[in-house]
Amino acid sequence: MEFYTIKQMIENFDAEFWVFEKPLFIEIEPRNIVIKEELISALELIAEKDYDILIVKTGICNIRGTKQFWNENYGFHPNIYSYLVNNFPQIRILGFDSISVSSFQNRILGREAHKAFLNPKRPILLLEDMNLIDVNENTQFSEIIVSPLRIANCDGIPCTVFGREND
Q1: pLDDT in tens for each of the 167 residues of the chain?
Q2: What are the structural domains, with CATH classification, of the chain?
Q3: Secondary structure of the chain in the HEC alphabet?
């Protein structure tokens, strides 16, 4: 078994890192517990490639507070990381409404996804368990600000996310 160490701590990211002026929001209907093709297909329809944050709504946020939300969560395939790096090189964060990038039904693939996204040479940070109930494909964000707690020596931390909608 291969072990790896991520040395990215919250204090390693300047305040400007958390301000996103080109947000991309996508709503998908997952076909499988591990998301891949449906997200890549949706991203292939996007002409502009200079987005800096990607927020994905799977719809699982609609069953928050249920046993299914915790036990049958969607995860993301590690190949999505490569697709984003190669096709959307400005994206610094992937946010989504599922509890984790790792589906509890496929923990092995989930570990690979964590390792891919948190690549120390080119990370795409994960904003897991977003409450996106009031956000849909008609919501147009002009800016997103992520406001994490600033605690030394932490690599995962609660945060508040502010979205400014277009007028």
Answers
A1: 343 444 577 777 888 999 999 999 999 999 999 999 999 999 999 999 999 999 999 999 998 889 988 888 999 999 999 999 999 999 999 999 999 998 888 888 989 999 999 898 999 999 999 999 999 989 999 999 999 877 776 666 788 899 999 87
A2: 18-140 (3.50.30.50)
A3: CCCCCCCCCHHHCCHHHHEECCEEEEECCCCCCEECHHHHHHHHCCCCCCCCEEEEECCHHHHCCCHHHHHCCCEECCHHHHHHHHHCCCCCEEEECCCCCCCCCCHHHHHHHHHHHCCCCCCCEEECCCCCCCCCCCCCEEEEEEEECCCCCCCCCCEEEEEEECC
